[in-house]
Structures are given as C-alpha cells and as structure tokens.
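Supplementary Text 2. Reproducibility record for the structural model of the 91-residue chain.

All settings were left at their defaults, and a single model was retained for analysis rather than an ensemble. We include the record here because the model underlies the residue-level annotations in Supplementary Table 4.
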Amino acid sequence: MRNVKDKAEVEPLVRAAVAHAMRTSLDGWPVDQPLLDVPDGIYDSLAKLDAIGRLEQELGSGPLSLDERAGQLDTLDALADWVVRKLGAPA
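Retained model, structure tokens:
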C-alpha cells in the first residue's frame, strides 16, 4: 500500500482519477465546486465508482468500502477527505 502522508498528497490523485472517470480535464477546477457542474463532464454513480477504483489501484489500498457518506462525495475536496479518512492519514 502506498504510504499517504496527508490530504495534500491525495488531492492530485483524486483530481486525476475523477478527470479520467469523467473523460474531461479538471485542471483548475476548484476543489469545493460540485463535480455535477463540470462542463462537458458527467459525474454520476458510475463515474464515482470508476474514480474510486482507480484510486484503490493507484494507492494499492485494496477496497475502500463505501459508507453512508458515499452520496456526499460530490466535490474533489470531499473525495480527498474521504480517502484520507479511509487510509487513516492526517487531514
């Protein structure tokens, strides 16, 4: 498993995984803006699962089980927080 030190290390990985899943660039997209608002991109449950799967592979973490917060993973910031919490790294 990749040793993740903090949220700052996770954010670029999250951005890349979500951009790939949405099939669009997220360069410059604010971390606190809803991903549903990305022009030319579709952020739905399939894109979310794709992004999480890519993060699991990149981090070598194994399954990051979705929990009750899964429905709230609608921004890059929320996803990064969730990954950090799942991996037990400092926020």
